[in-house]
Every structure is written in structure tokens, then in C-alpha cells.
Amino acid sequence: QVQLVESGGGLVQAGGSLRLSCAASGSRYSINAMGWYRQVPGKQRELVANIIGTRSTNYADAVKGRFTISRDSAKNTVALQMNSLKPEDTAVYYCHGRDIYGMDYWGKGTLVTVSS
Length: 116
Hints:
Elements: E1 2-7, E2 10-13, E3 18-26, E4 31-39, E5 46-52, E6 56-59, E7 67-72, E8 77-82, E9 91-99, E10 104-106, E11 110-115
Parallel strand pairs: 2-11
Antiparallel strand pairs: 1-3, 3-8, 4-5, 4-9, 5-6, 7-8, 9-10, 9-11
């Protein structure tokens, strides 16, 4: 049983920064991949960034150079540092985890709104 809880969403002006955090609880040691997805009403949920293990990272082209994902196993958290935010980054951001058995876990989401 794994639970993911996001925090750090809010309202920010274009060009500003925001840091999202996700805390894992439960049987978290079986999770080998963690990441962030985002979704806008009427559009499909898309991958923003993820970490496989502790070394391999992947970023969506739209956020490369602006967002940085990190994982802290000691604190059981994964964070997303978002810089140079754009209005098109506005979305609900979801923390995601996948365990070694192929099961997916999702947080409830946190809203990020970037004003122009």
C-alpha cells in the first residue's frame, strides 16, 4: 500500500519559480520509478519528468532547461523545481510512482497556475 501526497502548487507570475514536492508513505521501498505528470482540462495527461532508480532522468521537451526533478530517498520525497514558468505550464500536476510489479500509484494532484 503506497500513498503519494503532493504539495507546493499555487499561483505564480510568468517568469517566476515554484517547487513541488511529493511524499511517499506505505510500502514505498518497492517503487523504482517516480515522476510528475500534468493535465489540462480537455487534454491527455502527459509526462513532465521522471526518475528511474536514482540516476536516470527524463524530461518533456517543453520543460527541458527549466524544470529539474530530484529524489531524496532519506526523506522519501521527490521534488520538481520549476523555473522560468510560462502560462502554458498551467495545469494540475500529479505525482506518480510505479513499483517493481508494474503497479501505478497517483497523488491527488496540485494546481499550478501561471499568469501572464
